Amino acid sequence: MTSDFDALQEAVRRSAEARQAEVQFCEAFINALYQCFRHANGPGLPLNNVSLDWADDAANRVRPVPLGGWHAAWIRLGLCEVYVRVRLDAGRFVGEYGPHGQFSQERTGEDDLLILARTILRDLVRQQRGVAAQAEQRLAN
């Protein structure tokens, strides 16, 4: 008879290959998005102050991260850093960024990810402008 502990070890071993593939897919997606941020200004205008720092996602409460779990990184965009997390769900990349941003990407070509990077940048601009306006209003009162 197999103990619960042994059953857990076997389940982790059996899913190792699929988990590793998922990690590689999600990390490749985040890396490609990072590259798109670097080129979001257009051809020949790379942004040099963009960097990528891999991070553990706080939502993951088990290691190794089970299939469908989140994979994350901080992407530094000059003076702003945004936390981006991604997971695979039914063949598409589902992600979150910043305090409220969400996306779902089935297509991951360079043009598709450039559109996503520019959308995230615009959302961050709106958010930062809103925060600045609120702070100015509080100071004025």
Q: Care to give the gist of this entry?
A:
By secondary structure, the chain is of the alpha+beta class.
Helical content class? 40-55%
Q: Give the domain tally.
A: 1
Provide the structure class. Answer: alpha+beta
Shape: globular
**Tally of strands:** 5
- Major beta sheet summary: 5 strands, antiparallel
Radius of gyration (Å): 19 Å
- Strand ordering within the main sheet: 1-2-3-4-5
Tally of individual helices = 2
Fold and architecture overview:
With 141 residues, this protein is an alpha+beta fold. The chain has one domain (4-140). It has helices spanning 4-38, 110-140, and strands spanning 50-55, 71-77, 80-89, 92-97, 101-105. A 5-stranded antiparallel beta sheet has the order 1-2-3-4-5, covered by helices on one side. A hairpin with a 2-residue loop joins strand 2 (71-77) and strand 3 (80-89).
